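Researcher: I'd like a structural prediction for the single chain below. Treat it as a standalone chain; there are no partners to consider.
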Amino acid sequence: ADHAVALEVAAKQLLGGIEISSVGHRVVHGAEKFKSSALINQEMLTQVEACNHLAPLHNPANLLGIKVAKSVFPDIPHVGVFDTAFHQSIPKEAYLYPLPYSLYEEMGVRRYGFHGTSHHYIYREAAKCLNRSIEDTAIISVHLGNGCSATASEDGKSKDTTMGLTPLEGLVMGTRCGDIDPSIHGFLAKEKNMSIEEIDAMLNKKSGLLGISDLSNDMRTLYQAAEEGNERAQLAIDIFVFRLAKSIAALRASITNCQAIVFTGGIGENNFHIRKKTLERLSFLGLTVDEEANKNNGASTQGRISTEDSQLSALVIPTNEELMIAQETKATLAQN
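Model: Treating it as a single chain, here is the predicted structure.
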């Protein structure tokens, strides 16, 4: 079966008892063209296609999904919700690379950031947990899954984030390396005669937790192996935590105030070891971990895993990107 057949089967199941009023689509890359979600029409699709070179693995698949969904649901509106949109508020000093400026002007080479739908959702939920207005909330949200990113947000806007032109930049991830010396590309090309394509595949698919441990990209597997004495598994965990704490500390400089560090994603929501080790490295921010609350993922403390006397809160908030896409779709249609 292809995408069309699969969606037709799903549609028949849904249409048995649910009225579908609109369709929301996750679109990974909107570059600078989309600062918010957008109603899907031919002009919008042309603009998304023009961003394909920035996300060759994702945008063409997103466009295929839109094409198929519009054929199955031809008479209702469709909306694109962009992973990059939330980060379009980041200032130039944070998103520009110190490269020849012409690369930005001619090709759009800059930091775009990803996981924007998740970080936006977490920001709004954190404001509720902290009993603060959207305009008076400042947090660092940490999305930890197979892909990982951290974002500093303030006044309802993203101010800085760890992912860049592509999702490769930033934190150590399941199979992605995150930040490395750019000259490693040239070194490997010269010393190992590797092509750009081979290096790119290695950095994206064979590095990170998998590359260090040579065992797995799954944090659960690594923790079990580490407990059994696997030194490389332990090393992968230690590097992951060190780089994460270092990045959170750097993001603190991007916002004038900070009320909380918020963990989300599969690892962020469920692995109390990672949270504990990371927050212990950040104790200089005036934060102390509540051991019991952290062990039960904040379930009994409304997500809070820091002690009451901490100057800075630590929270665990489950992300819900699907709900955020639905809400963005509804809001976009109301505006149109």
